[in-house]
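Side project, low priority. Logging it here so it doesn't get lost.
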Amino acid sequence: MASSAKAKVRCAHSQTFSFSFTSSRHTQSGSNTPSATSHQHEVYLQQSHSQGSQHGTATHEDDMLPFFPRFESQWLCDEKLLVAWFEPHFAQAKYNLDPGNNGGSNACTLIAVLLSSYCSSEKVLTTCTHNQISYCIIKALGIAMLNGNEIYNRLKREGQLPNVNLSIPEAISCAGKFASRIKEWKSVLYMQSLSDSLFTNTQGHLDEWNASAHAQRHNYLYIILISDARSVLFINNRKDNSITLVDSHQHSAYKGAAIAVVNKANFRCLCNWFVHILQKYNQSNPGLYELSFLYYRRK
């Protein structure tokens, strides 16, 4: 991706608009990096919830992102799985409005909850276009990381953070009004090897969801996986028959966050890939994990 570009994208409500962005491998001071103010990120999320891109034109949202990230896309699993790896500064530990704040982040569960909320409120499309990850889900991840880190750090400063690594109920509580419409369909704790059981267990719940009345009323089911104190988000999209994985963590000195998309028929490929990157970048094969299934009440 070029460092400065103009692109046309299809975003919420299936509308197309043009926007300009500047990509930078590092956040820097100056006109492209707005100064942070108290609770600015939370106001940003509130404004984007109420305004979004429903008018079909670029809004102040794009300007408030520190930078739009560079990324590399690749097809894996016999071109069944599309993966986007982002530059290392586009990850929860480093992506913020303060260039000097790279001290790590434990806000992944809160980020996953906020990302699901933003996707639901803004009707963010996860569909791939022209063999590329949707711009809209990339922007949504950036917004969720900014707000998740801001809320988490504020609660920590004020002594109101319930735990270093938040549970799903704690993250929903910390998200406050941004998660007011959230409903937990079910949550299951597994004392099993993640590598041996992730696909089977998740697919079983997806089959149950698809057979329920909920699936007829809700196009999206959000699944948060917690393993080894790390949370990632799966987005089950009934409309386009796809599943998207969003992992906000930095994976190496050269790889930041990751987004991966498959058709539902190839969900096993996505699960196998996620297990592989856990083993490769974290030397981890969890024997205990939690799956939480969330949906949002209609307004």
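Brief comment: The first strand starts at residue 4 and ends at 10.
Revisit when time allows.
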